[in-house]
Amino acid sequence: MRESHLDAISRIDETRLWNRHMHMATIGAIPGNGVNRPALSPADIATRKVLIGWARERGFGVAMDAIGNLFIRRAGTDPTAPPVMTGSHMDTQPRGGRFDGMYGVLAGFEALEAIDAAKLTTRHPIEVVVWTNEEGSRFQPCTMGSAVYTGERRLDDLLDVTDNDGVRLGDALATTLSATPDVGERDLGAPAAAYVEAHIEQGPLLENAGKTIGVVTGIQGLRWYNIEIFGKTDHAGTTPLALRKDAVRDAINVINALRKLTQDADDVTRFTVGRMLVTPNSPNSVASHVLFSVDIRHPDLAVIERLGQAVEATARAALEQCTLAITPTLHDDPCVFHEQVVAAVQDAANTLGISNMRITSGASHDANYMARVCPGGMIFVPCRGGVSHNEAEDTQPADLAAGARVLVAALLDLDERV
Ligand code: GLV
Ligand code: MN
Ligand code: MN
User: Fold this and answer.
1) Which mutation among 88, 135, 380 tests ligand 1's pocket best, with the greatest number of atoms within 8 A of CB?
2) pTM
3) N or C: which end of the chain has fewer CB within 10 A?
């Protein structure tokens, strides 16, 4: 590895990186060390302002696109070269932790600062992106910012999506955009030279294997649906069961049928119903309407396709009293990362003497969409007990710094190769 690259890597500051995580974790803090920072909420806006402030102090460029993706740029020498990009997201789950998403943003910013402190010139701009609404917990589906940026979805099709309180995405987005009026404009779909995202693993494999770096080779396939059950509200004390159209009862029937569909002996398939809205949501009224989410994942394309194709018929066959509507909201086939990025991450870890292993991501990430438009990949670091989407999410400062060092090396390597 070049001396100049080693110089930049040596400037990764473990304490600064950790302290920034702790600072960001105060914004939307919840008991138990957790964070609740919904996409496009006041807390999300507050973290954007902090990051923009840090970027300005360093003299980095700041821009935003039409869906609120935020770009922090250190210029390169070639004004025509597209950026080598890194980044992740700052929104969280309702009971999220301090590291899911925020690590990729802060590791990226730390990398930018380290490269700047070493006074390196790069041919491409190096850019940290904060993707809007990665989690999809407030507005469905997830990974929305990168989907719109890469042309997988149209922004216009998403503006009327509402959260659980009926707030339109379009209105929350307008509030967010107007909260930071003094930033540059970035076109949706502007080309990227490469994309490498750092993230906590969110699973137990690295910790169990005693490895510090996960060289991520791809992301498993994913299907999301919203299923609505339509029944009729009635008095809970007077209406005989046989005469009801009980939406909760049929929701349970459908969920049980889908759970059986997705059961496998080796416990590879993931099946989750994590969101449920019941109307009128009263103990002594039969439910007239239930909306619930379905999240199914598998690393094998043939399996996820087969399961996805069976969802609607399985759900309809399980109904006893009600009718049903099903809306697919996400359809991501398994993603295979570009070998050039995988190799850049692995070479970086090996050269720096950091233990590593190849790994497939169980969670979804914005890298999924970026890898469709440029060479893409990811770097994982361990998290304690594999716990994530939980306020107890935790990790070691030294592991976060190790991941940032690998990130610097990979970004500089990609700058020279792509
Ligand atoms: C992202 O958090 C996911 O659902 O995998
Ligand atoms: Mn994440
Ligand atoms: Mn997440």
Assistant:
1) 135
2) 0.95
3) N
